Amino acid sequence: MAMRADDLIDRRRLRRKLTFWRVAAFVVLAAALIAFSAWIYGEDFTGQAVDHIAKVKIEGTITEDEELIKRLETIRKSATVKGVILSIDSPGGTTVGGESIYEEVRKLAGDKPVVAEVGTLAASAGYMIASAADHIVARKTSIVGSIGVLIQYPDVSALMDKLGIKLEEVKSSPLKASPSPFKPTNDDERAMVRKLILDSYDWFVGIVAERRKISHEQALALADGSIFTGRQALGNHLVDAVGGETEAIDWLATKGIDSKLKVVEWKSTEGRGFFFTRSMTKAVANALGLPDAVGDVIHELGADRLFLDGLVSVWHP
User: Fold this and answer.
1) 176 belongs to the catalytic site
2) Active-site annotation holds for 124
3) Residue 150 and residue 37 share a domain
4) Does 87 lie in the same domain as 22?
5) CB of 299 within 8 A of CB of 276?
């Protein structure tokens, strides 16, 4: 009988230990899931559940970005987002990319107050997106402007002649597949491209005039491709104030947004693609036996801009 009592006691102890370790394993698993989610989503994981000011960074070369557009749409529909700060640091990019983001920001501004905070640079399509906000603040030394559109294409015909390469082509009409990098551009081709450029340019100037509440003539005078410091841009009515995030929050406060609300960055949950991401450029640098810092330099020099196609609105320093 004594042995059976001991066995019973041992079984109870074993059950308690087993229950303890099950609970401990559950707690560890839950903590791991929370930590993993926080690592994936950053502050957004905990911050988006309460009232806050959403911050969206728009950086680097602008192209068509479905993920960003969906993120802006989600922000617009979120009941906990009371105001939005667009943090812009971009030399521009494709006109279609700028246009699509511009239109989504305008939809967002229809439901929530939106302020653009310019960092180092908001040029060309970058400024196009900034102009979609209700208010623009920029640092005194920020670079703003470069309003305009361009198309660039190489002419490798002289190189082909040196290499003894001849291009044969049969076209349905003279302007089909023109301009071409394989032969010099003629007057008709240049005239066609210029019409293309001027139509998009006129649209760009029009939205600057509309959004900045200046005359078309004033917008046209500023849209000669010039860039301006933040202080100059303020004097030219291209921005509304000088400053940074503090000034952006102060403006949101004038729209009834509590300035004490936490600013939560809504980050992308997707990669930027394989080619010429920051990790890719570091990998290239490492493959060449160069330090990681060189990869950062390659990225900052804008290797991704080499692959822009079609009409672009981008400032090349």
Assistant:
1) yes
2) yes
3) no
4) no
5) yes
